[in-house]
Structures are given as structure tokens and as C-alpha cells.
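#lab-general

N.A. 3:47 PM
ok so I finally got the sequence cleaned up, no stray characters, all 98 residues accounted for. can someone with queue access submit it? mine expired

B.Y. 3:52 PM
send it over

N.A. 3:53 PM
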Amino acid sequence: MSMIVVVTENIPPRLRGRLAVWLLEVRAGVYLGNVSKKVRETIWEYCEADLEDGNIVMAWQMNTESGFDFQTMGENRRIPVDFDGLRLVSFLPVDQKK
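B.Y. 4:20 PM
back already:
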């Protein structure tokens, strides 16, 4: 079991309800829980199936240099990058079209 954090934006209500089955929603779109790897993977599968136009980041404890790992899905300016085995976040440029 390990602590996970799921942060969501613009997800459908059915996915919010599904996340609330396993995790505690401590703020709008922010979920916390202590779950097994299998449950974490199952939650991610539900997120993939029901995401629609939203975006999600999930972070969990891991025996790495930083002490955690994370994954994302959906459109967002922040994208994960691997830098010599360390997971960092890169920012895409702001869309200048208006």
C-alpha cells in the first residue's frame, strides 16, 4: 500500500464519482488515498476510459531519488520528462493564437 494523490481538471461527474469510491476528495478535483498497486492501476484504467476533455495527474510513493513517481493524461502545458532517471516537468509554450 502506498499514498497516492490524483489531481483532476474538467473531468465528467461519473469519473469524479468513481474516484470518490476509492479516494477521499479533499478539495475540488484533488483526491488522496492509501491503496495497493493493483487498485492504483485500476483507478488509472477508469481514468483512461472516462477522461473525455479533462486532464489528470496521479502521483504515488516510490523508492526513487525523489521518493515518488507520477503519470499524466489529457491535454496540459505541463508534460513529464525523464532527466537522467529523475522525473521532471517541462512546460509547453503558451499558445499565442487569439
